[in-house]
Amino acid sequence: MIRTRASLRRPLAVLGAAFLGLTAAVAVAAPASAHHTTITATADCDGLTGERVITWTVENSERDKAATLKTVTADPSTPVNLAADTSKPLEGAVVPKGGSVQAVQRVPGDTASAKLTVYALWKKNGQDRTNEGSINLGGDKPCTPAPKCVDASKAKYSHTFDGPKGTATVKLDGDLPLCGDGKQHFTLVSYFAPRPQFATPQYVYGTPDSDWIGGTQTEIDLKVDIPDCHTQVDLIWGGTDEIIDPLVEGGKRYGNKKLGSKGTPGNRSTGPLGAYNGGDKSCTTPAATFASNCDGTVTVSLSNDGKISKYPVEFEVRGENGWSKKVTVEPGKADNDTVVPAENAGKVEVLVDGQVIEDGSYSWQRPEDCPLPTITTKADCENFTLTATNPEGGLPVKVVFTYGKETETRTVQPGDSETVTFKAGKEETALVVLPELELEMEAVYAPEGDCGGGGGGEEPGLPVTGAAAGGIAAGAVALLALGAVLFLMARRRRVRFTA
Asked: What is the pLDDT of residues 90-123, one digit of tens each?
C-alpha cells in the first residue's frame, strides 16, 4: 500500500489565511480608535489689562470627517471663545476635515499654567474622543497691566536752571501723571554770599519760590530775585521746609537734594546741576561822610546799613603823612568815632578792599561857624598897639601886622593872644592880614587928645560881621564908643576901622 505523504502546504495556507483575516480586522479597527484632537497653545500679555491671553488651537486628526466639540473644559475656568468671533464659545464649534479652530482664553496675569480638555464627536462614524492640552506659564514674568499713573516715589523729571537769572523749570517725564493725590515739591532759593565762590555764612535773599507737580500739573516754572552782590542760587528737591537759613560753617547742606546731583533724590531729574555761585561785588554797603572841625581835624562817619548789607565791612581810613586807621562795621551799623588829626587831614581817603569807595575822598575845610580871631587896638601919641586874640577850639592863626614900613608876623595859638606895638608915625592906618583865613583889615591910627596936632588914647577895635562896607563903617563909630572888640568874619575883604 502506497501511502501518500500528507503535504504541509495546505494547512499552512489555511493558517496563513486565518492570520491575514485577523490582521485585516485590526487594521480596520485601528483607524476608528485613532480619532483624536491635538490641542496646542501660545500666550501673550495684555499690557492694558495685565491679563495673559492664551490662544488655543484644536486640530482634527481626520481628513475626511469633521469633528464637533461637544464639551470644552478650561482650567482656569474662564471663558474660551472662538478667535474668529469672540462672542461665540469654543464649545459646540465644528472642526473641519483635517483642519483646526482657534479660541482665545483670558486668565489672570500671574497664572502659572493652563489646561484645556475637549470632548469631540465625529458624527459621520460615531467616533468620539476626549483630549487635553496644556501650557506652562511659570517660566514667563508675571503679566502686569500698563500703569495709568506713576508713583511719586518713582517718578522721573527733567529740569532747566539759570542761576544768574534766578529761573528754573521742572517737568515730569513721560505721559503719565502722578498717582492719586501724590505731589512732589521743588524749590528755588537765592542767598547773600560772602564771596563769588562757595563760602559761609549765607543768608536767604528775598522770598524763595516753591511749587509742586501732581495731578494735571506736570510742569512748573520757578523764579527768584538775585541780590546785586555775591550770591548762591540752589534748585532743590522739596518744599520750603527744606530751606536752610542760614548756611553756616559745619551746618546742614543740600547735597544730593540739588537737582541734577549724582545721588538721590537729585539724580531723579535730568538737567544741569541746580547750583550757582557768582556776583561781582560784596554784599555790603560801605559809605562814608566827613565833617571838618574848627580845630583842623576831620571826623569820619562809616556805615554799612544798605539793602544788601549782610556782612561786616573792614574800612581803612587814610590821612596824609602815612596816617591810617582800620575800622570794622557790622551789617546795619555805623561808626562815628574816627577822627583824622589836623596834621593829617589835608587829604582823607576811605578804602575797602584796597579801593577808595564812592565819595570816599575829602579834604579839611574850615567850617563857617568857627569863631574868628579878634583884633583890638590901642593908640596914643607915642605908640600904635594891635592885639590879635584866637578863640579856643580852633587852629593856630597867622597874623601879619604892617604899619608904615614895618611888618611884624605872629602865630596865635588857640585860646591865646599876640600883641604888636609900633612907634607912632605919620601913617594913618595899619594893615592886618590873616592869610590862612583870606582876611585883611585896616586899622586907623587915631589917638585921642592933641599930640602936636593930635593926642593919645586907647580905643577898642571894630567887629567885622560880613555886612556891607557902609554898614560896617557906620557900626564902627558906635562900637568904638562902646569899647567893642573887632571880630573877623569876612573873606578877602579889607575892613577899615579907627583906633
From this structure: 999 999 999 999 999 999 989 999 999 999 999 9
Contact by Cβ (8 Å): 62, 85: no
Query: In this structure, what CATH number is given to the domain that contains residue 111?
Result: 2.60.40.1230
The C-alpha cell that represents 342 in the structure block: 589836623
3-state secondary structure 425-465: CCCCEEEEEEHHHCEEEEEECCCCCCCCCCCCECCCCCCCC
Look at the block and give the residue holding cell 563760602: 199
Query: Which of 406, 417, 340 shows the shortest CA–CA distance to 373?
Result: 417
Report the helix count and the strand count for the chain, using DSSP H and E. Answer: 2, 33
d(CA 35, CA 64): 11
> How far is Cα 220 from Cα 481, in angstroms, rounded to an integer?
91
- Within 10 A of 344 (CB to CB), how many other CB atoms are there? 20
Helix (H, G, I), strand (E, B) or coil at 18: helix
Distance CA 434, CA 460 (A): 19
438 within some domain: yes
Output the domain CATH number for residue 344: 2.60.40
Q: Choose the final residue of a domain: 136, 166, 184.
A: 136
429 in Cβ contact with 498 (< 8 Å): no
Instruction: List, for residues 378-413, the tens digit of each pLDDT value.
Output: 999 999 999 999 998 888 999 999 999 999 999 999
Whether this prediction's pTM lies above 0.70 is answered by no
Q: Smallest Cα–Cα separation from 498: which of 440, 403, 400, 428?
A: 428
Please check whether residues 348 and 388 belong to one and the same domain: no
Neighbours of 407 (CB within 10 A): 13
Domain for residue 403, yes or no?
A: yes
> Which grid coordinates belong to 162?
539759570
**φ, ψ dihedrals at 176, nearest 5°:** -100, 140
Q: State which residues form the domain around 112.
A: 35-136
CA distance 117 to 131: 6
Q: Are 432 and 440 in contact (CB under 8 A)?
A: yes
**In a 3-state reduction of DSSP, which class is residue 221?**
strand
Rounded-to-integer distance, Cα 40 and Cα 294, Å? 116
Q: Are residues 351 and 302 in the same domain?
A: yes
